[in-house]
Design goal:
Elements lengths: L2 E6 L3 H13 L3 E7 L3 H11 L2 E2 L3 H6 L5 E4 L6 H10 L4 E3 L7 H14 L4 E3 L7 H11 L6 E9 L11 H18 L3 E7 L15 E7 L4 E7 L7 E8 L2 E4 L8 E3 L2 E3 L6 H4 L1 H17 L8 H19 L5 E2 L14
Parallel strand pairs: 1-2, 1-4, 2-3, 4-5, 5-6, 7-10
Antiparallel strand pairs: 7-11, 8-9, 8-15, 9-10, 11-12, 13-14
The chain binds nicotinamide-adenine-dinucleotide (NAD) and (2R,3S,4s,5R,6S)-2,3,4,5,6-pentahydroxycyclohexanone.
């Protein structure tokens, strides 16, 4: 039987996930859509034969919805995720789980009170084939104990609405999640410094930024976030261990030779770079819902951890690069694992 999914927020990524659930992933049907923009909800719902509903609460309560997908704006996520937990329905929430640590903890507490995991957070990099290969190498001990991680996260440009804190909250948050998972280690401090700013940015934005993180086991991570790099969408990650290193592969691309040049095209956005990761993320989520089991992807605890670590990074940015200790609660046994 097909899992009937209701979607809250039919904007850019909401429509992309609806396409994915409709055309790519088997075993799912989008049955209901809601958006603050009722006309948009109506249009998107009509395209796929779903029902347009007027609010997130109505969608969560609908008997035609088995599982909820939250792709609305970040500050609205907590309300919808808490609503889905109260209704006992599995919920996939795009990042961030919530925009404040307090709201993330309310979700964690509601889920624990429910007694089993219902929430998965949309940190799709854990499903990327390259990161998965890196994790296999690290877990197998092939490079020895990890010591240092070098990363870069570059976007070609960002819109005027992108402000300096978003380098951590919106962009670096993906590295923060994937590195906790990759290293199976917790991030305990953050420092953000700003080199000379590119002239190719809106005046209000500090870009690029260099972020340093330290883990509980003493691994040092450096991350360049450069969101107006002009040339493309470029994600780099290299983990150096006691006995070798492992590097994230660039996605496979044809080699092009033209007059005096040999190269490959550079991808231009995260949609293309992580297309496979998004597809696998939704295949695995739908499989977990269909089986009646708990989701295996990033948990609400991971959503909380990412928010408190990004808070520390933003505090560092706002205090001229002071190193800030991450103020994280102890991890409940309910979520298993260490990071
Ligand atoms: P968007 O502005 O294109 O779409 C959001 C939609 O949600 C809009 O149509 C808006 O009207 C609607 N909306 C807002 N509040 C609502 C509410 N309470 N109820 C119903 N509808 C509501 O934004 P987007 O780029 O699609 O981003 C949505 C979310 O996805 C954000 O949290 C963003 O951080 C996340 N995102 C994740 C990735 C990723 O790489 N995983 C990439 C882009 C965006
Ligand atoms: C965007 O919101 C994302 O989530 C992308 O994955 C990231 O690369 C980009 O910097 C963010 O703005």
């Amino acid at each position: 039987m097909s899992v009937r999914v209701g979607v809250i927020g039919a904007g850019m990524i909401g429509q992309d996930h609806i396409r994915r659930l409709t055309d790519v992933v088997t075993g799912a049907t989008v049955t209901a859509v809601t958006d603050l923009d009722a006309a948009r909800a109506g249009e998107v719902a009509a395209r796929i034969g779903a029902t347009a509903l007027s609010t997130g609460a109505a969608l969560i309560a609908s008997p035609d919805v088995d599982a909820v997908l939250v792709t609305s704006w970040g500050p609205t996520h907590a309300e919808h995720v808490l609503g889905a937990i109260a209704a006992g329905k599995p919920v996939f929430c795009e990042k961030p789980l919530a925009t404040t640590a307090e709201d993330c903890l309310r979700i964690v507490e509601a889920e624990r009170a429910h007694g089993r995991r219902l929430v998965q957070v949309g940190f799709m990099r854990r499903f990327d084939p390259g990161y998965r290969q890196m994790k296999e190498v690290i877990d197998a001990g092939s490079i020895g104990t990890p010591l240092i991680v070098h990363c870069a996260h570059r976007n070609p440009t960002v819109p005027d609405a992108y402000v300096s804190a978003m380098a951590a909250q919106d962009t670096a948050v993906h590295e923060i999640d994937v590195l906790r998972w990759l290293l199976d280690d917790e991030i305990v401090s953050a420092q953000v410094i700003t080199p000379r700013a590119t002239s190719k940015r809106f005046e209000h934005l500090k870009d690029p930024q260099i972020m340093y993180f330290e883990t509980a086991n003493g691994v040092r991570i450096d991350l360049e976030v450069f969101v107006n790099c002009q040339y493309g969408y470029d994600i780099q990650c290299e983990t150096v261990g006691e006995e070798g290193l492992v590097r994230l592969p660039d996605p496979a691309a044809v080699g092009i030779r033209t007059t005096g040049r040999h190269g490959t095209a550079v991808l231009q956005d995260w949609k293309g770079r992580f297309a496979d990761a998004f597809d696998t993320e939704f295949r695995e989520w739908i499989a977990s819902v269909a089986s009646g089991g708990e989701p295996t992807g990033p948990s609400s605890w991971d959503g909380y951890a990412a928010t408190v670590i990004t808070d520390a990074a933003v505090r560092s940015l706002e205090s001229d690069g002071t190193t800030v200790t991450v103020d994280m609660k102890p991890r409940p046994a309910f979520y298993g694992g260490t990071a």
